[in-house]
Amino acid sequence: MSDVAVPKLRIGVLGAGAISQAAHLEACRKARNATLYAICDAAEDLLQAVAVVHQPCTTFTDYDQMLADPNVDAVIVAIADQFHVAMASKAIAAGKHVLVEKPMGVNVEECEALTAQVGASGLTLQVGTMRRFDEGIAYAHEFITEEIGEVLSMRAWYCDSTHRYAITDALQPLIRTSGGAVRPPGDPKANRRSYYLLGHASHLVDTARFLCGEIVSLRAELVEKFGAFSWFISTRFADGSIGHLDLTMSVRMDWFEGFHVYGERGSVVARSFQPWYLRTSEVECFSESDGLYRRPLGADGHFWRRQVEGFADTILNGAPQRGADAHDGLAAVRTLVAIQRSLDSGEEVEVAGIVGAV
Fold first, then answer.
1. What is the maximum span of the chain, computed from C-alpha positions, in angstroms?
2. Domains in the chain with CATH codes
3. pTM
4. What's the distance, CA 98 to chain centroid?
5. How crowded is residue 291: how many other Cβ atoms within 10 Å of its Cβ?
6. pLDDT in tens, 262-311
């Protein structure tokens, strides 16, 4: 048995709020190749309460001080969407690698600037669309890439449930809050269309791109009734295939998420679960070559830990980046803006060249 210590990425987490408490802090502590070195939050009462539970090496109430610490190798930006780009940019400027929560930003122009900065820096930026680290979805991606041949079409759906908070209250740790938390001006949740696209369609769009490639054009429709929102989005991919994306907030039933992909030499059918169950998607891949279905077990469903480990592998060992990079983050935001433009015009719109805010 080797006594050689495994190198570990020392991570500082910016933000001690709900997503950090429910996902990122535990992910850093459980990761085989990373460690939770620091937590930073402007709300000192929240910071200290969370630090008691997760035991980082140190804490900061000042982000600049955390970035100045030479022991911090990388930063997880886990704060409000409106602050993602500014705080990720500061980290890159300080020579730190970044894992930024999805969406990468809230408008195309800021995402373009961050993508250029990352490219010039040589550092790693990964966007936190953690479904890429779902073992079942990763298997589907590999099957589509290597075995399915040309893709004909795909369907994907992300339907949040009216019962999601009863479920998450049971599954997540008790989330601590603070009146001193820093929040964006105004109320970002007041514009529900924008809020749902940023928070939920960002997952749907990234999964579609991960499986089938670039979305080159789209046409979107939206129906609002009884406090619910349903987007149907027809897409065209760069390879000539077509797609249908369904974002519904919220269905009067259980969480409903998954996709179908139909190809030249096979098909994929997948069902994903409410993420906080930490349950791998059920994926069946059918191959015409032998007439058999393949279904991976996917016993490891801790997407957030696997995401941190993939991030660390890229930085420490030069492994290919498995997560969404800055270009993926930019493309997702551009696609979200295109959805808004299509709703405004009622027409199909080209995604390339789209600018503006979600």
1. 65
2. 9-130 (3.40.50.720), 132-299+325-350 (3.30.360.10)
3. 0.96
4. 13
5. 7
6. 999 999 999 999 999 999 999 999 999 999 999 999 999 999 999 999 99
